[in-house]
Amino acid sequence: MNIKFRLTLLSFLQFFVWGAWLITIATYFFGNNMGTGVQFGAIFSTLAFSSIFMPALTGIIADKWMNAEKLYGLLHILYGAVLFYVPQVKDADTLYYVIFAAMICYMPTISLSNSIAYTILKREGYDVVKVFPPIRVWGTIGFIAAMWITNLTGSKANSNQFIIAAVAAIALGIFSFTLPKCPPQKSIAKDASLIEQLGLSAFKLFANYKMALFFIFSMFLGAALQLTNMYGDTFLDDFKNVPEYAHSFVVKYSTIIMSISQISETLFILAIPFFLKKFGIKNVMIISMLAWVLRFGLFSFGNPADGLWMIVLSCIVYGMAFDFFNISGSLFVETTTDASIRSSAQGLFMMMTNGIGAFIGSWVSGYLIDKYFMLSNGTKDWHNIWLAFAGYALVIAVLFMVMFKHKHDPNAIGSVHPEPVLPTE
Known about the structure:
Growth Hormone, Chain: A, mainly alpha, single chain, globular
């Protein structure tokens, strides 16, 4: 079987098993009266908390001790097994621990899937900057397919969404064992330092000013992404509380409307090589941050009637906001770090975006909404919530524009950086 096709299938299933429930878990949780908003915030934050330590840990294991494809397969099988248990859970406290266990297994597989694809493609002589984005775009298609299946099968408010994800996850785990071997990059020298033996050299990248800034702003953008995942579908579904919108297409098919965001991703992923070559990593990342401003601002003024175009445009802009940072950022890490720490560095990037950043986004947004954006009738003031998020993204964009110094070289590898960054001794 063609290796690019196999990696495409891997990418498709990687995000299918997440998309089946990620956007609709809030609808499931509140629709079944499982607990309060604070409890849901805690449950959703398990995605972030597990990303703080698991991607870096599994990256270290893949760099030093275990084949990446075997570790990846094992994690997906465990993830599927945990999801099968979710329908048995009837209270928020138990659901917290079950979802936390699932996220411990799933979150590190995102960076591992990137590392596996990069390793195999480079070994086969492919240019990863050109070949990887068209493969990765199928991950977004998988996410879309899962969202549509969940919505169209009437599963967005029941536990079937977790069963759909579980079956696919176990199938992916088994499939991954058939992939070409991705052995550890480097054996541990007898005279290696404790940091080297533990595979923590990637953390020394923080000693490099440019890399440190990159990871810090990754954290801030990770918080912005979490806001969309937490509140997007719930925001659209809440229009059912407004009589004139209660039976609108937007309310009935909120998950499908949200999937426009992922459809947009498929187009912008394919545009990444051009934009990196033309504008360079700094400008691409600034474009991403400004796109987040538009994403939130358009949601603030949109509605299912005369403001529907703003909701749709917000979903389209999301593709640029997400891809231009997450995918370009992954390529930036791949082309600017030494091979001996590459899996660890990808895990570190994942930790900063979907870990610390998402954790901050979950807790701070939940606190601010409860304290400042709840109306007297118990509903959320979505207009001002999204305006506040837009202001946050604008501040981050301006700070990054001023602080991150990078000279674009169109002839550099991947148009990102000419030389890999070695861990500082």
